[in-house]
């Protein structure tokens, strides 16, 4: 990220109110929850890059579904793959959202998926350690919201690490940021049959 793209993405990330950001064809699409969109729109409109920023208001999963369906209104980037997607919506939806991006080619090879809060105040690494020790509580069904979110974030990180289509870097900044780069999976070696 560089230039205005980096500035706007990190401005939104720093505020912590943004639920979904994606970049396509040099335009920045920002999906905010309704309560934050008026504030965002005022600041975006003041920018000399206002014409490059498309603000979509709504719930992230609904907006993603519109992109997947291709029933977009022409302003939401439904016609191609994105360079960057920032996930900061419902933490339990990260796995599903990343899967939809990949399944429907909404993230290009070389594109980034950045997910916030993946360490969840240290609960995700602690859960991982408990699983490695074989603690019965770690594999029991989650009872509270915090446990459900912890397991969902653990699943997101673990599944991304195990998937050859992604390279993942986790930054222990604030509550943890996962930066995943989509890569082409390694192709199996072909045997030379002309020997």
Structure summarized in a few sentences:
The chain has helices at residues 3-15, 34-46, 60-69, 94-103, 123-133, 136-139, 145-162; strands at residues 18-24, 27-32, 53-57, 82-87, 107-116, 166-171, 177-182. The chain is α/β, with parallel strands linked by helices and 195 residues long. The N and C termini lie far apart (48 Å).
Which sheet architecture does the biggest sheet show?
Answer: 7 strands, mixed
Distance between the termini: 48 Å
CATH superfamily: Vaccinia Virus protein VP39
Beta-strand fraction estimate: 15-25%
Shape: globular
Query: Helical amount among residues, as a percent range?
Result: 40-55%
Total of DSSP H or I helical runs spanning 4+ residues: 7
Order of H and E elements: HEEHEHEHEHHHEE
CATH architecture: 3-Layer(aba) Sandwich
What is the topology, as strand order, of the major beta sheet? 3-2-1-4-5-7-6
Number of strands: 7
Alpha-carbon Rg, integer: 18 Å
Uncertain parts: 1-8, 13-19, 71-78
Total individual domains: 1
